[in-house]
Amino acid sequence: MTVRVTAAVLENYDTPFHLEELELEEPQAGEVLVKIIASGICHTDGLAQHADLPFPTPGVLGHEGAGIVERVGEGVTSVLPGDAVVIGWPWCGECEHCITGNPRYCDQLGPLLAGGGRMNGTTSLSRNGQKIHSHFFGQSSFSTYAIANESSLVKAPKGIAVEKLGPLACGISTGAGAVFNALRPGLGSTLVVYGTGAVGLAAIMAAKNTGASKIIGVDLHDARLELAKKYGATHVINAGRCNPVEEIMKICGRHADFALECTGNIKVVRQAIDSVGMLGTVCLIGGAPAGAEFTADHLTTLWGKRIIGMLGGESTSKKLIAGLLELNAQGRFPYDELLVEFPLEKINEALAASYSGEVLKPVLRMPH
Ligand SMILES: [Zn+2]
Ligand SMILES: [Zn+2]
After folding, report:
1. Which pLDDT value is given to residue 290?
2. Ligand nearest to the backbone CA of 141
């Protein structure tokens, strides 16, 4: 038995997505069939489209899916048909990092995110008997239905607008989690956010919920900097018009305590590293092209400086998404104001609008 789905297929790298009908398997033991209501688009989808993340083609991308449980496989007990769910990051549940509470750094993360199918090599999607690569981030949610592991699902509260939940699975959680889980700015500390797109704005919204006294947004677009101010930045810098590191020194009277790099642009990575001083921490979360390398000044790095990388906001999908939804309901984390809906068939336009900066966070609505 298979389910007919409409999905956006990536046939080859560097080509546009096209919509096609595919067959999706029924859920196996431990798996859940989710009727996708909407899926966010994250820059990682664009990285995979251009082979900067090695997901095999032909395949279906999409890793910010939210929807309704349609059917469950054998042994699934934590969700039932009809439950609203967000599909979080997959994790093996058995390796050293998974069992010590760090599933974002699961030893099997590479194959789980981008292996192109289940861990046993099978795919859940096919086209007239031909294998189509699936399980991108354990979901492949640019599709009307997706198969995900029970362990990656996060149940949403009853009555919530499911179409707004997908971006909490990756981009929004990454920005907010970098602040809440990795940097944890204390009272009176200073934080710089490089890149005020959706991820950076989520970080700024999170920082507003901390004791940070100076929250500095850096970008090249004035319109985005206006949004940064609206959502909690106390200062903004247009890096196209000045040297941001010098400007930060003026604003803080010294180096900043924390810098968050959301652009993946190597020149900006260096600026972020140079923005923090003694005992400062720089957190890198922007996705750079495959093979990119960065440099740092050796002497000033010895000053107790920490350069850390971070994936997916750390913690667990369940904890992050539940926490952010509560803040959202209280008006303290208005991430949903950044979302712009597109129908699935406009996927290429949606991605282009995200890259041009015209749209902060595109969300694809599935045709049902
Ligand atoms: Zn693991
Ligand atoms: Zn993502």
Report:
1. 82
2. 2
Give the predicted TM-score (pTM) of the model: 0.96
Q: Is the dihedral of CA 39, 40, 46, 51 positive or negative?
A: negative
Q: Which residues pair with 86 in a beta bridge?
A: 66, 154
Q: Compute the distance from residue 124 Cα to the ligand 1 centre, in Å.
A: 21
Pairing of strands 256-261, 276-284: parallel
Distance 205 CA to ligand 1 centre (A): 30
Q: Which two tokens stand for residue 23?
A: 């067959």
What separation in Å is there between the alpha carbon of 202 and the centre of ligand 1? Answer: 27
Q: Which two tokens stand for residue 292?
A: 């990119």
Ligand nearest to the CA of 316: 1
How remote is the CA of residue 103 from the centroid of ligand 1, in Å?
A: 6
Quick check: 232 and 205 in contact, CB under 8 A? yes
117 touches 133 (CB < 8 A): yes
The rounded distance, in Å, linking the Cα atoms of 66 and 68 is: 7
Q: Is the peptide bond before 367 cis (omega within 30 degrees of 0)?
A: no
Looking at the CA of 90, name the nearest ligand.
Answer: 1
Q: Beta strand 145-149 with 153-155: parallel, antiparallel or unpaired?
A: unpaired
Of the listed ligands, the closest to the CA of 98 is 1
pLDDT digit string, tens, across residues 11-57 = 999 999 999 999 999 999 999 999 999 999 998 999 999 999 989 99
- Name residue 235's beta-bridge partners: 216
| Nearest ligand for residue 108 CA | 1
**Residue 90 structure tokens:** 């997959």
